[in-house]
Amino acid sequence: MHHCVGGYAHSIKDGHNLIFSIKDEDGRSTLQLSIVKDENGNIVRYSIAQHKGIYNAALPENHELVAQELVDYLMGYDDEPDYELLDEDLGWEEAIA
């Protein structure tokens, strides 16, 4: 994907970020989520820090939606992702790798 994901290894290990690869028939993208914690180390929220297509190109269609569905799911807003909003060919398990 030609992104510097390796530079985030310590931040991921320390629990400050998550990195996901989203892929479908339209292309791939790399999603970085920031993890915000309170003073006790409890997760307060997840937020999209970066979301880039290959070579920093525009995101493939549906990838912004998949990213937001993931954030909503992690935040507990949804018991499960809203599959109807996702393209029929883009299954949740296939979209998030």
Backbone structural class: alpha+beta
Count of DSSP-assigned helices: 3
Shape: flat
What integer value in Å does the Rg equal? Answer: 14 Å
- Report how far apart the termini are: 14 Å
Question: Strand-and-helix sequence, N→C?
Answer: HEEEHH
Q: Please count the beta strands (DSSP E, at least 2 residues each).
A: 3
Q: Helicity level, as a percent range?
A: 10-25%
How much is the average pLDDT? 81
Question: What does the main sheet amount to?
Answer: 3 strands, antiparallel
Give a description of the structure.
The chain is of the alpha+beta class and 97 residues long. It has one domain. It has helices at 9-13, 63-75, 92-95, and strands at 17-24, 27-37, 43-53. Strands 1-2-3 form a three-stranded antiparallel β-sheet. Strand 1 and strand 2 (27-37) form a beta hairpin. The two termini are 14 Å apart. The model is unreliable at 88-97 (pLDDT under 50).
What's the structural blueprint in terms of helices and strands?
Blueprint: H1 9-13, E1 17-24, E2 27-37, E3 43-53, H2 63-75, H3 92-95
Antiparallel strand pairs: 1-2, 2-3
